[in-house]
Write a structure and sequence with these properties.
The chain crosses the membrane at residues 32-51. This protein is mainly alpha-helical and 80 residues long. The protein has helices at residues 3-61, 66-76. It has one domain.
């Protein structure tokens, strides 16, 4: 083999040995970012359900008038 091809092989091996840990770190960071985004989305969904439940409770228990009657009739079946 010529000196040129040996040098290219050496540079490829050294380059790959340097790039593999960086590639692992980049993928690991992307996984962490994805998991953080997933956690944030799940947190938003939980908060949305919590707010919906609180609003429904407020409408049925605290508000008097047409809204409360409408919501209670929907569950209890058109009671008079």
């Amino acid at each position: 083999m010529s000196m040129h091809s040996n040098l290219l092989i050496f540079l490829e091996e050294v380059g790959l040995s340097f790039l593999e840990p960086m590639d692992f770190i980049i993928h690991q960071d992307m996984d962490l970012i994805f998991l953080e985004m997933l956690d944030f989305i799940l947190l938003l969904i939980c908060w949305w359900f919590f707010i919906q439940i609180r609003l429904e409770w407020m409408m049925t228990h605290l508000v008097t008038g047409a809204h409360a009657t409408f919501l209670t009739r929907g569950r209890a079946g058109l009671r008079s």
